[in-house]
Amino acid sequence: MNSLSGRFLILTIIFVMLAEVFIFVPSVSRFRQDYLIDRLERAQIASLSLEADDMISPDLEAELLENAEVFNVVLRRDEIRRLALSSPLPLPIEESFDLRDPTAMTLIGDAFATLLDPEDKVIRVIGNPVRDGGLLIEITMMQMPLREAMIDYGQNILVLSAVISIITAGLLFVSVQILVVRPTKSVVEQMQRYAAAPEDARRIIEPQAGVKELRDAEEALQLMQTQLTGALKQKERLAQLGSAVAKVSHDLRNILTSAQLFTDRIESSDDPLVKRMVPKLVNSITRAVNLCETTLAFGRVDEPAPTLTITELHPIVADVLDSERLSADAADITFVNEVPVSMRIRGDGEQLFRVINNLVRNARQAIAATRQPGTISVRGWEDDQAWHITVCDTGPGLPVKAQEHLFQPFQGGVRKGGTGLGMVISADLIRGHGGKLELERTDENGTVFCIRLPKADVDLV
Length: 461
Description:
Layout: H1 4-52, H2 58-68, E1 72-77, E2 80-85, E3 93-98, H3 104-116, E4 122-127, E5 136-142, H4 143-196, H5 212-266, H6 272-299, E6 309-312, H7 313-325, E7 333-338, E8 344-347, H8 349-370, E9 374-382, E10 386-393, H9 400-404, H10 421-432, E11 436-443, E12 446-454
Parallel strand pairs: 3-4, 7-9
Antiparallel strand pairs: 1-2, 1-5, 4-5, 6-8, 9-10, 10-12, 11-12
Helix pairs in contact: 1-2, 1-3, 1-4, 5-6, 6-10, 7-8, 8-10
C-alpha cells in the first residue's frame, strides 16, 4: 500500500467509517427512544380496553400486557394516578427513564449504558400519553429485549456502513486512478523518456491532462525542458567553438613562435629603422603568443587536478616577481615579496605560480598604463582555518564593468585587446584547491586580490 491510490483507498475507508460512527451514536440513541415510545403507545392502547369495560378477565389483561411487552401500565389523568393494567413483577425495579423532555446527551448516555449492561433487569419508563390521553403514562418492562433490539439495529447499521464505505472507496479509487494516478504516471514516463536524451526536442512533453493542477504541472515541465534543451544545445555549440578556437590557437602559437625566432635575428641588424621597429614587433608577437597560450589553457577541459604537497610559498612568489621585473614597462614599478620565508602551504606549486603570475602581471600592466611609478606587493599569512595570499598594487583600480564581469571569460578584460581569461583560469585553479579567489578591494588607491586555501578537507565558501 505504498502507492498513492492504495493509501487513498485506505484513508477513504477510514474516513467513511469515522463518519458512520458519528452517525451511529445519535442513531442508536434515537432507536432506543422510538422503541420505548412505541411500548408506551402500545401500553396506552391496551389500557383503553379498561376504559371501555371496567371488568376484564385476568386472561384478557395478561394478553393485553403480553402484546404491549410490559408488566404494568399506570395512567395519570386529572391528577389521579391509576394502575390500569398490572401483572406480577419477576424482579424489583432497578432503574427509571423519563422520556417526557430528555436532552440529547441524556438519550445518548442512556443508550450506551443499555448497550454496555448485559444483565436483564426491570426498568420503569415514563412518558407523555398520545393524543392528550392523560398527564403521563408509566410502564415497567424488561431491559434485555430492548438491548437485543438495539444490538440488532447497531449491527445492521455497521454492516450498511461497511458496504457504503467499500462502495464509496471503490468508486473513489477508480476515480483517482483515472483522474490522478494515470496522468501522474504519464508525466513520470515523459520525464524518464526526456532524461534519456534531453537534447532531443521531440521528447519534450506535450500537456494533455484535463485536470487543471496536473496541466499546470505539465506546462511548467514543458517550459523547463524547453529551456534545458536550448541550454544544452548552446553549451554543445560553445564546446565545439571552444575546441575549434583551441585548435586554431595551437597552430597560430606555433607560427608565432617561429616568427619570434626570426625577430631575434632581425635585432642584430644595423638599420636604424629596423632597430626602432623590432621592439614593437617583438612585443606584439609576444602578446599574441601569450594570448594563444591563455586561450589554449582555458580551452583545455582536461585541466589536471592539483597535486597537493607541502610547498614553500616564498620561492614561488620570488620567481614570479623576478620574471615580471624583466618586462620593458616595469622600470618604475617596485616589486615587494612580503611572504615569510618559513611559510609553507599545501598546494600545487606550478598552479599557484600561474595564479600569482596572472595577478602580478595584471597589476603591472595596470600601473604601467598610468605611466606613473607604482608598487606591487605579495603578502602571505595563515590562521587556524586557512592560508591567505594577497596581491596588492597601487594602480588606478578596476573599472566598474571589469568588476561586474571579473570572472567571466572574454568579458572581464581591463586592457584594450585583453580577454579576461587569466582571472577565469586563476579562479578555476584555486577552486580546484578547495579555496577561493576574490577581489577584496579596488579604488583609485589600488587593488587587492586575496587567495584563501583551506587547511581542512572542506571547500571555502
